[in-house]
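Dear Dr. L.,

I hope this message finds you well. Following up on our conversation about the binding site, I have prepared a predicted three-dimensional model of the protein together with cytidine-5'-monophosphate. For your records, I am including the exact sequence and ligand specification that went into the calculation, followed by the structure tokens. Please feel free to forward this to your student if that is useful.
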Amino acid sequence: MKIKRKNILKIAIDSPAAAGAGTVAKTISKHYNLFYLDTGKIYRFIAYLKLKFPNKFNQSFIKHEIKFLKINNLSNKNLLSDEISTEASQIAKIKSIRKLVHSIQLNFAYNPPKKYAGSCLDGRDITYKIVPDADFKFYITANTKTRALRRYKELVKLKKKITYDEVLKSIKKRDKNDLNRTISPLKKTKDSLLINTTNLTKRACFLKIKKIIDNKIKINGNL
Ligand code: C5P
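The resulting structure of the complex is given below.
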């Protein structure tokens, strides 16, 4: 990382799949004018490369493709398929791939574009590996069935042919992978605040987090 911007607000969020972290992170980022990065999308993009170009898929190919990756490319709806979710959690176990992804994340976390007052990243290892000195750390979760139902509804909206049971199975498999892998597993750090969204609306979740942030800002002045 070449440059670290000073006095920026940094928010780090970790969460299991489909817990609502992305939705609230986007709203929070908009509210506080923060640059938002959904780090899972980078792993998804690499998974997409693996599925689309299986014969070319190696470290230098990934490096090359990532170099030309634009943030806008990450909002491609194709990255949301269940096939890509499963593949992403497989490739996320590979040390060399994580290393590549880490450098991109560090850059966005510590040197977000000038027009933003800071950064907000969500993923699996953000609170303890990527932005350990974040001003705010959250671990956002919800029970497995609720998460599966949310993801199922999202996929139906995208016209994907999949059943609720298939989504549930895939989420459980991903949880197992993400929680038990040796490199950068998903975990709640002691200094992260737990937010359970099972019975929270999107708005209630936003307000809960906003209150925590505003209270600390009030006490400490500008952070
Ligand atoms: O968050 P999302 O469901 O899009 O992430 C897809 C996969 O990418 C996860 O299941 C996880 O294995 C991996 N991931 C990761 N570290 C991150 C973000 C995502 O290992 N910081």
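In brief: The beta strands are 9-14, 34-38, 118-123, 136-141, 193-196.

With kind regards,
A. P.
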